[in-house]
Amino acid sequence: MENNIPHKIEVEGNTVEDAIEKSLKILKVSREKVVVKVVSEEQKGLFGMEGAKPAKIKVSLKADIDI
Questions:
Q1: 14-47 b/e with 16+ CB inside 10 Å = b?
Q2: pLDDT of residue 34
Q3: How distant is the alpha carbon of residue 39 from its chain centre?
Q4: Where are the domains of the chain?
Q5: Could you give the C-alpha distances from 6 to 28, 29, 48, 53, in angstroms and in order?
Q6: pLDDT (tens digit, 9 = 90+) per residue, 18-62?
Q7: Phi and psi, residue 4, nearest 5°
Q8: The pLDDT of residue 11 is above 50
Q9: What is the pLDDT of residue 23?
Q10: In sequence order, what E strands does 1-67 have?
């Protein structure tokens, strides 16, 4: 495994799927090679107003992969 690629990251996105896509690009791996833990789902503001919060996930590489 390359030293400059992290083994675990925390990512935010507009949705959980958006955050997963961002993490896969950062780690340069496919979805099958990571474990995703949802820290928090996105929250939308009332009528599109402020108060919206992004989704947050923690992503780690599975132990048995080669990059």
A1: eebebbbebbbeebebeeeebeeeeeeebeeeee
A2: 96
A3: 10
A4: 8-61
A5: 10, 12, 35, 25
A6: 999 999 999 999 999 999 999 999 988 777 666 689 999 999 999
A7: -85, 0
A8: yes
A9: 97
A10: 8-13, 34-40, 55-61
Q: Which amino acid would we find at residue 32? A: E
Q: Tell me the CATH class for 8-61.
A: alpha beta
How many angstroms separate the Cα of 38 from the Cα of each of 3, 48, 50, 67? 26, 23, 23, 24
Tell me the whole-structure pTM to 2 decimals: 0.79
Long-range contacts of 42-46 (CB under 8 A, 24+ apart): 42/13, 42/14, 42/15, 42/16
Q: Give yes or no for a contact between 47 and 31, defined as CB atoms under 8 angstroms apart.
A: no
